[in-house]
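To assess whether ligand presence alters the predicted conformation, the chain was also submitted together with 4'-deoxy-4'-aminopyridoxal-5'-phosphate. Input:
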Amino acid sequence: MSVRTRPDLAALPGYVPGRTVPGAVKLASNEVSLGPLPSVVSAIAEAAARVNRYPDSGAGQLVAALAAKLGVAEAQVSVGCGSVTLCQQLVQATCSAEDGVVFPWRSFEAYPIITQVVGAQQTRVPLTAEHALDVDALIGAVTDTTRLVFVCTPNNPTGTALTAAELDRLITSVPRDTLVVIDEAYREFVDDPAVPDGVEVAKAAWAAGRDNVAVLRTFSKAYGLAGLRVGYLVAPAAVTEVVGKVFVPFGVNALAQAAALASLAAEDELLARCRDIVAERARVRAALLELGHEVPDSQANFVWLPLGERTAAFNEHCMAHKVIVRAFVGDGARVTIGTPAENDQFLEAARTFP
Ligand code: PMP
């Protein structure tokens, strides 16, 4: 006799991580290609000498540093084991089986998986023809049972971002008891002045009496700590409190906390790297447009090629050129911006794609 497990999980597709192939350039997971700064490596090494002790479960020092940097109260910051875990905590903290989550689609692949794992209902709202979030359709999808709306901006995998006016319209059109989660995993790569800073948008919403706006950010991308797993949520204290109830104790390990603190201390240098990636993004996009591809304007550290049925062939062609991209078969390919040499290798593959 086999053990009884949840039958609904049988149909659940697993999260597909970007592939790693020895000898190939990996542009599949939106990581930064350069390794951590020496100051961050030393902080990790120092923390490693103390791993016989549990980490600070509340990540007090990191929460204090983030609150000071962002100009919010410490009670308005929660740290998580990557922002993906905070996504899950948010759904767990807001939804029971009959409640729903609304999110754009295609977007961050974890949203549908997490929602199903938690056992809540989901509504996927198609992107516009321009591969952007459809604000009116998102607003229209919210019903009495909707507890949470994920707003991924810039959107993974299309790179498009909402303007301040669009985000404001969304926030002011959603009922005040439905949580709007602005997922800003790629915020540090934004260079379009029309795209607002989500934390400032949230603070303005709170000041206007809307306590239903939260922001997710991560140390995985711009700060280069994908392998350590640490992200954070900025939200009204009532939200961080309930998110804390579903936090697995000691979820954010001591090395991650130390590295995140050291990365905040070295922020200027890390953000300068982001500017280099943004410049490369413009170069890669221009080259792809030149080749005749459609490439939406990206505000993230990747570009999107809506190749439709040609996606699988493009993926294989890139693999043959030792470049790993992230293919969503039948839809498109997402290509992370790497170092100039890595990007050149990708562009060479793209140039020879029939
Ligand atoms: N949100 C978005 C939009 C993402 O693309 C990702 C990573 N792919 C995450 C959240 C989660 O990142 P992490 O868990 O590494 O912080």
